[in-house]
Automatic annotation (TrEMBL), chain A:
<protein>
    <submittedName>
        <fullName>Asp23/Gls24 family envelope stress response protein</fullName>
    </submittedName>
</protein>
<comment type="similarity">
    <text>Belongs to the asp23 family.</text>
</comment>
<dbReference type="Pfam" id="PF03780">
    <property type="entry name" value="Asp23"/>
</dbReference>
<dbReference type="InterPro" id="IPR005531">
    <property type="entry name" value="Asp23"/>
</dbReference>
TrEMBL record, chain B:
<feature type="region of interest" description="Disordered">
    <location>
        <begin position="1"/>
        <end position="45"/>
    </location>
</feature>
<feature type="compositionally biased region" description="Low complexity">
    <location>
        <begin position="217"/>
        <end position="230"/>
    </location>
</feature>
<protein>
    <recommendedName>
        <fullName>Asp23/Gls24 family envelope stress response protein</fullName>
    </recommendedName>
</protein>
<feature type="region of interest" description="Disordered">
    <location>
        <begin position="137"/>
        <end position="158"/>
    </location>
</feature>
<feature type="region of interest" description="Disordered">
    <location>
        <begin position="217"/>
        <end position="238"/>
    </location>
</feature>
């Protein structure tokens, strides 16, 4: 895995772990972005820019070792939101550790932010 | 008294969040969608290519939802119409998420968008008989002094307990102080059991009275209306 490929591949690892977490209905679909592009509004207009179309964002921390991971999820009804976010964080950490067997786990220096964007 | 003055779905208003998506004709995307869903004719939309394109995108999305519904295994006891409606709600939440609120303890990094939390609170309040929920606003508690020194990003509340302000319409049979207490209790319970959000205080505004048929505005006499205005009550937790 090259350095350039790493964040995207890690996002896939993280996304898979998140979707397997009980209480998660789906990742934020980014439908607003899709519609924005389909109606010619231009990417990023009308948003803070902090939230892209994807439900998972992985970035290498600038000037330091480690990863900043942001996860945006839509939950299924009947699950306590805080409990699901904690389970999501645990699942992400476990997935990162499994993705780097025999070396320093990425999870050791990963910051995981989980945001609930809806409930269905 | 009109409810939902802010124009946001469900009545949540967001003064300090980015503007909504605006089409080239000047109309907001969400407004065009909501107008189309009412089924009422709109002369502007009928002749506007930008609105037409926005509605075409909406119909495409609805078709995707319909196909997904058709693909759903029939043995699952889904209320598919309700599910499709909730998926569309998710789309609306993406357009108007409001601010982002903390979940859990101060040292955690868990969050929820204001619109989703407000929807949970409104549903909890409307489980009371004869009570309708209106605008729901969730703020940082100004009396919380234990926050970190660094300011949160724009649109994100500082980590700490929240303060909820909700407007309700209530039936004439309710004692106003009692219903305010019940509303407060439902919100505190929902915040704990359904969200995991710390709530420091709940402000309840009795915005209107409902007659037996559930109509607002002319339900009571002048004295009742005055009492309703004066029933803006505050309750601080723990």
């Amino acid at each position: 895995m090259t350095e350039q490929q790493a964040p995207r591949a890690l996002a896939d690892v993280v996304g898979t772990a998140v979707l397997a977490t009980p209480g998660v209905a789906f990742l934020r679909p980014g439908l607003a972005e899709l519609l924005r592009s389909s109606v010619g509004l231009g990417a990023g207009r009308g948003t803070s820019g902090a939230a892209g179309a994807s439900g998972v964002r992985v970035e290498r921390r600038k000037g330091a070792q480690g990863l900043d991971i942001e996860v945006y999820v839509v939950l299924s009804r009947g699950h306590r939101a805080l409990d699901v976010t904690r389970a999501v964080r645990s699942a992400v950490v476990a997935a990162l550790e499994e993705s780097t067997p025999g070396s320093t786990p990425r999870s050791a220096s990963a910051r995981v932010k989980v945001t609930v964007t809806g409930v269905v | 008294m009109a409810m939902n003055e802010g124009g946001a779905p469900g009545g949540t208003s967001y003064e300090d969040v980015p503007e909504d998506e605006v089409l080239s004709c000047g109309r907001e995307l969400a407004q065009v969608w909501e107008q189309a869903e009412t089924g009422e004719p709109d002369p502007h939309t009928a002749g506007c290519p930008h609105c037409a394109e926005a509605l075409r995108a909406l119909r495409s999305l609805e078709a995707v939802v319909a196909r997904a519904r058709d693909d759903e295994p029939q043995e699952r006891p889904w209320d598919t119409a309700a599910l499709a409606g909730r998926v569309m709600d998710v789309v609306r939440l993406e357009l108007r998420p409001g601010r982002t609120l903390p979940l859990g303890e101060a040292d955690e990094d868990a969050w929820i968008v204001e619109a989703a939390a407000a929807r949970t609170f409104r549903a909890a309040v409307e489980s009371l008989p004869g009570v309708r929920a209106g605008s729901c606003r969730i703020e940082a508690d100004p009396q919380d002094t234990g926050r970190p020194a660094s300011a949160p990003p724009v649109g994100w509340l500082p980590r700490g307990p929240a303060r909820v302000r909700i407007e309700v319409q209530v039936g004439l049979s309710w004692n106003l102080q009692l219903v305010a207490d019940e509303v407060r209790a439902r919100i505190v319970a929902a915040a704990d059991r359904e969200l995991g959000m710390r709530v420091a205080a709940v402000d309840v505004v009795i915005a209107d009275l409902l007659d037996d048929a559930g109509n607002a505005g002319n339900a009571g006499n002048a004295e009742n209306a005055e009492n309703a205005e004066n029933a803006d009550t505050e309750g601080r937790q723990g």
